[in-house]
Amino acid sequence: MKAERGFTLIEVLAALVVLALTLGGIMNAAAFYGRNAVYLQDRTLAGWVANNQMVKVQLDRTWVPEGRSNGKIEMAQREWQWEREVEETPDERLRRVTIRVRLADADDDDAWLAKLSGFFAQPIPKGAAQQAQAQRQQQQGENQGVSAGP
């Protein structure tokens, strides 16, 4: 009878160690990719919240007052905190609006997921454009009525 040869205990243990290390690395990579996917989703949603707040400023059609304001809003079944800062610019007819967004339950002041900046011009009052055009036409008419002498 021929003696059957199998794996020794040391060979089996070495194989298990290699398998455990490999599976540990795979699990670590999978966890990293999972956390990264959640982070990217949060950043995308925060960007949408920032865009929505900027559009609200744009649709308001009033001269945005300087200073800070903040609020909370729900999107995608999560609560978000936004902060709007309005600053003057060297051009007195322009203001810079910066909106930052983070999750409402974030405690860290550096946890802002999105930041969006835009510039808004001072709105023209209703009828002002028509008045300006009428004044230009009147001035052109007066200039055309004046002729140079012989």
Automatic annotation (TrEMBL):
Post-translation changes: Cleaved by prepilin peptidase.
Protein name per the record: Type II secretion system protein I
Domain Type II secretion system protein GspI C-terminal: 40-120
Family note: Belongs to the GSP I family.
Organism of this sequence: Oceanococcus atlanticus
Locations listed in the record: Cell inner membrane
Disordered: region residues: 126-150
Alphabetized UniProt keyword annotations: Cell inner membrane, Cell membrane, Membrane, Methylation, Transmembrane, Transmembrane helix
UniProt feature, compositional bias: Low complexity: 128-140
Biased composition (Polar residues): 141-150
